[in-house]
Specification:
253 residues; Rossmann fold; alpha/beta; 54% helix
């Protein structure tokens, strides 16, 4: 089989990455006296790795996840209240397979968003679809479609993805419509997908966040907490730590 025909087949199979470097790969294989099977393995491995890199990059872009926040750059030493073993277990993606939720509680700056984002990035790497919103963004999108029952909005990102992250619950008090929409969101995802929520308010304060509606709050908590992983992060603020370092640096000048 000629090299030209091989290239035609590779183009037909959309193996563009290895097609572009086929000459280099073939030349190296001849010099190293690589076997046919080893050469084929090398070509296919490079193609799969490139496609996987492109898939991850595209999925991260579409997910809305903040950049730069990964589990491997989370400072567990600075935040000892976060049990690394539990986070490592979540990083396996098992909670997504089981359609379980993760709730991260704690004051501002302790790393809730970082952990949620890191788990989202890991989920993308494992092949799961992920979408990330602040609570305000989520409610804004749902209000635009409030004339359609949420249960019928399966094509929307906040329902169709395997994992949805809702950040910053507690920074605003919701009105009655917003409470109703959020309840519908939680109900629609219940046992159909995983949700990660970060909140700067403790559970006992959620009734105030949800317009004082005790019944709606109980219903939301009942669905979120069933088969959920809860984290209460009690520690110092990363942002204050960085600010203090900046001050120390200035004092040394």
């Amino acid at each position: 089989m000629s090299l030209a025909r091989i290239k035609q087949h590779m183009a037909y199979l959309h193996m563009q990455h290895t097609l572009d470097i086929l000459g280099e790969l073939a030349e190296s294989a001849v010099k190293e006296q690589t076997s046919h099977l080893a050469f084929l393995d090398r070509v296919l491995t490079l193609e799969v790795e490139n496609r996987e890199e492109r898939r991850i990059a595209t999925s991260l872009k579409l997910s809305g996840l903040p950049r730069g926040m990964r589990l491997d750059n989370f400072d567990f030493m600075f935040q000892p209240s976060v049990e690394k073993e539990r986070i490592d277990f979540l990083a396996t993606g098992e909670f997504i397979r089981q359609k379980e939720n993760v709730l991260l509680f704690g004051p501002p700056g302790v790393g809730k968003t970082h952990l949620a984002t890191g788990l989202g990035v890991r989920a993308v790497e494992l092949g799961y679809s992920v979408a990330c919103f602040t609570l305000e963004e989520l409610l804004h999108k749902m209000k635009r479609r409030s004339d359609t029952p949420v249960i019928k909005q399966r094509r929307q990102a906040y329902l169709r993805n395997a994992l949805v992250i809702v950040d910053e619950l507690g920074y605003q008090v919701l009105d009655r419509q917003e409470v109703h929409l959020f309840f519908q969101f939680v109900s629609a995802r219940y046992r159909k997908g995983s949700t990660i929520i970060t909140s700067n308010r403790s559970v006992k304060d959620w009734v105030h966040v949800f317009a004082g509606d005790q019944m709606a709050t109980t219903a939301i908590l009942d669905r979120l907490f069933h088969r959920a992983h809860l984290f209460n992060i009690d520690g110092k603020s990363y942002r204050l730590r960085d600010f203090e370092k900046q001050l120390e640096g200035r004092n040394l000048e």
